[in-house]
Amino acid sequence: MPAASTSPSPDGTRRWARTPTPSSSAPSCRSCPPSSAGSLWTRSAPPGASPTSRRSPRAGAPDTQEYVDELLLAFCEHYHLTARECVILKEVLQGKDNQNIASSLQVVLGTVKAHVHNILKKTGTTTRQELTQLFWKG
Fold first, then answer.
1. What's the rounded Cα separation, in Å, for the pair 94 and 76?
2. Are 41 and 5 spatial neighbours (Cβ–Cβ below 8 Å)?
3. Which ranges constitute the DSSP H helices of the chain?
4. Which of 8, 26, 71, 86, CA to CA, is 20 to 30 A from 113?
5. Per residue in 29-47, is it b (16+ CB within 10 Å) or e — as a string?
6. Are 79 and 122 in contact (CB under 8 A)?
7. What tens-digit pLDDT sequence spans the chain (138 residues)?
């Protein structure tokens, strides 16, 4: 099976790109067009970066995770959420459903449902979407 790959496009999205591989490693196939014989789908590195390098954060840019953690702490204090409710809220904000939250925290599904219900009640929201909007709005 060919290796998968994407490459950046001018609009910033990633695109799949076919890159040639040595013809000795690819079997010849009469039904394949000559341009695709001996090629694999591979991921191209951003311009000016080695394929194994990671993007370094801009100088002076705050760490995103630290920023989110600070927001979460302030949000939990404002709405008087317990420590466990804050942990559950963090998982909800990551888009996890109740079952995945229960599995990752090793608790029973009913416990997660109760915590989520309490979080929604304390914040005055009725859905996870409203809760997420409230978190990022304020």
1. 16
2. yes
3. 64-78, 83-93, 98-105, 109-123, 128-137
4. 71
5. eeeeeeeebbbeebeeeee
6. yes
7. 545 445 555 555 555 544 444 444 444 445 444 544 444 444 444 555 544 444 444 555 568 888 888 999 999 999 999 999 999 999 999 999 999 999 999 999 999 999 999 999 999 999 999 999 999 997
